[in-house]
Write a structure and sequence with these properties.
Blueprint: H1 3-19, H2 21-40, E1 49-54, H3 60-65, E2 71-75, H4 79-87, E3 93-96, H5 101-106, E4 112-118, H6 123-141, E5 148-154, H7 165-194, H8 197-203, H9 208-233, H10 241-265, H11 269-283, H12 285-291, H13 305-317, H14 322-351
Parallel strand pairs: 1-2, 1-3, 4-5
Antiparallel strand pairs: 3-4
């Protein structure tokens, strides 16, 4: 491998990339715009507490409590529906009432009330819900300890704090920031193919391996530097920085390989942008699922960026360690190898 040629190609690609006024402007404005969006988002959470409820018969005291400000119940048709809603983080807490709760209370029996909590429900929410249920039972019967409570965490109990919306959006912003370089790299390659620059370079002592190595280094470094800089500024590296940086590096490799695939499909710069926008829309779906829990179900696991977004979210927002995310990292590496290999093979055929 000729490292002098590779270095010259990387310098050339950076110069060509920033010579394009559109991509140069978008690259700079992208970082500034995403930083502005992050810092103007509210840093606090909504004080209204929404609780899921499954009760074949709703006692009168539950109907009265819904009139209180700051508390809202969402009724579900089955225990399974409520469990799924909690698992999807639509609600942080849920309450299951037995069908004959009124008869048990009237006869002096102690009914069992089941409480469900999401993995990141804070202790304050758990205490509030448990205390509320006990007080409601007291209002109904006039006696303390009128009910038994069984609490269950749906998923691993991470004991995390509520996550402000801007910290959830931080994930979307950094993914969009590094994804955009995928479209920029694809357009750059398409332009070089259209103008026969690639074929002219291949006439020189430069090999195809040198060409792809240079393109890969340029794409990965440009995306990774921007992503790492953004996360450092917004505090995204305050928790588990090594995990996040490795995830950003793997994400940069993935998007660079995707840029190769897009360039192999595109006939010119216009179609390259069309394919790039399509890829961005698909790749951004898992990040929307983090921002708005419940909008993306298990089918999102088939999108490679699901594992990238999950790693960054778990590490930056929930302080998850290596032991919990190593499987996602391994899956992400496998996706990277497939995407980069597929992109190089597809683009290599176009050069022949």
């Amino acid at each position: 491998m000729n490292f002098g040629v590779i270095r010259a190609l990387v310098v050339k690609d950076f110069a060509l990339f920033f010579r394009n006024r559109f991509y140069a402007l978008i690259t700079v404005l992208g970082i500034i715009t995403y930083l502005v969006i992050y810092f103007v988002m509210p840093s606090s959470v909504d004080e209204e507490l929404e609780i899921g409820l499954y009760a074949p018969v709703i006692p009168p005291f539950f109907e009265l409590i819904q009139q209180e400000e700051g508390l809202k119940f969402h009724e579900y048709n089955s225990d399974q529906d409520l469990r799924q809603a909690i698992a999807d983080r639509i609600h942080e807490a849920g309450v299951i009432l037995p069908e004959d709760i009124m008869e048990q209370l009237a006869s002096g029996q102690i009914p069992l009330v089941t409480l469900y909590f999401s993995t990141d429900a804070p202790d304050e929410i758990k205490d509030i819900v448990e205390t509320m249920v006990k007080e409601l039972a007291y209002l109904q019967t006039g006696q303390f300890l009128a009910i038994n409570i069984s609490a269950e965490i749906l998923g691993p109990d991470l004991l995390g704090d509520q996550i402000p919306i801007r910290d959830r959006m931080r994930l979307m912003l950094v993914i969009m920031l590094i994804m955009f370089e995928m479209m920029g790299l694809a357009s750059l390659i398409s332009e070089e193919v259209e103008q026969d620059t690639i074929r002219a370079l291949l006439v020189t002592p430069m090999s195809v391996r040198d060409l792809f190595t240079a393109k890969l280094l340029m794409g990965v470094s440009l995306a990774f530097i921007q992503g790492a800089l953004f996360m450092a500024i917004v505090g995204g590296l305050n928790s588990q920085p090594s995990i996040i940086l490795i995830a950003l590096l793997l994400g940069s490799i993935m998007f660079t390989g995707s840029g190769f695939l897009i360039a192999s499909l595109a006939k010119d710069m216009l179609t390259s942008m069309g394919w790039g926008i399509t890829a961005i829309l698909i790749y951004s779906i898992p990040a929307f699922g983090i921002m708005f829990p419940g909008t993306v179900t298990d089918w999102g696991r088939f999108i490679p960026t699901y594992y990238l977004t999950n790693i960054i979210h778990q590490a930056s927002n929930i302080n998850t360690g290596w032991s919990e995310i190593w499987v996602d990292l391994l899956i992400l590496m496998v996706f990277n190898m497939l995407i980069v290999w597929g992109g190089i093979m597809a683009l290599g055929r176009k050069f022949r």
